């Protein structure tokens, strides 16, 4: 945006001190390096997530498809950054740009704004789809579904504001000749900024919501404290995305008033950080099976010959509980305590683990292999309690009920253990 008097002032400064080289000064390389690094890390995380889902868990969920769409948006953002740099404006002083170059830059920036907007919303929708796979109550399910509907409607409304900023003459968003000639009437800078700040405020609220929403769900899982703390810490990266969103909103308030706004490009830089950190926070929990497998391989290489290496079997479809695994036994110092892993095509969902394993989770299946008979003490209710120790999640089905005689144990069930 060319402000009257700025161009002449800069040219006079350049003439007075030729060493400043204001005209050729560029910050584009640093900006592209930053954005390219963020994009590369985010894409690698999504690729590893798909590897875990397809080759280790043998199943891809709706949240994975949505995250792939967000990754496509990430690639689109980097393409737009490259186009903006090629136009000669990104990282440079806009007052020194030729009108034709500035028009090309704004054309790229128009699509850039749309792509990153959809990408951020897709990350949140992916988190909501992930949580819907194992939340225990219908109320929670309805809340998440309502959040998805709200995000879709909110994103479309924001996109509509951006697309129709100049009415039906969409090309006026980058072709300023249409504005100066009176062929198109667009929002004033003040109006456009106020709309943007309102949208950013809603965006910050949803960022905080989806950063904190997984915490109570994870904390209610019947697993050990170490696992809970690890998952909550990873998901807590979403709070950093919230911080980036707040900083972005502050930068947005003064972006259109800054005559040199493209040199540091602060608003879009923080917008991009929010987007890619969101991808990381949403995808890292799904990589837990891969990390555990790597740690298991490291332990086997470093363990002595008289120690039995810990077996890190497969996980179930959520990626947080054990599923497929090989028939191995891990012995502890107490010979009465042994942990088993048995192959099966089925596993219990985290929702069932949260409520306790029961007949709903352990259905008869003729394909399941014969496992180990184990006796579990339960209470008077109809649900058998799954005792989770060191991340081992028992999965099996009821074989028979034996009513004890005398006093003491209230009820005993014999369970066919198919896998951990």
Description of the molecule:
- This protein is 55% helix and 8% strand.
- The protein has 420 residues and is mainly α.
- It has two domains: 12-289, Rhopdopsin 7-helix transmembrane proteins (Up-down Bundle); 307-419, no CATH class.
- Mean pLDDT is 74; it is low at 1-7, 304-317, 322-401 and 408-420.
Shape: globular
- How many distinct beta strands? 5
Give the assembly state of these chains.
single chain
* Major β-sheet annotation: 3 strands, antiparallel
The run of helices and strands is HHHHHHHHHHHHHEEHEEE
Helix content: 55-70%
> Any low-confidence stretches, pLDDT <50, length ≥5?
1-7, 304-317, 322-401, 408-420
Total helices: the number is 14
Give me the side-by-side strand order of the main sheet.
Answer: 3-5-4
| Main structural class | mainly alpha
- CATH class category label of the largest domain: Mainly Alpha
CATH topology of the largest domain: Rhopdopsin 7-helix transmembrane proteins
The end-to-end distance, rounded to whole angstroms, is: 62 Å
Query: Residue-averaged pLDDT, rounded?
Result: 74
The structural domain count equals 2
Share in β-strands: 5-15%
Radius of gyration: 28 Å
CATH architecture of the largest domain: Up-down Bundle
In short:
The protein has helices spanning 6-16, 28-56, 62-86, 99-132, 138-163, 177-180, 189-212, 214-219, 225-235, 237-255, 261-264, 266-283, 288-302, 350-355; strands at 328-331, 338-341, 372-378, 395-402, 411-419. It is mostly helical.
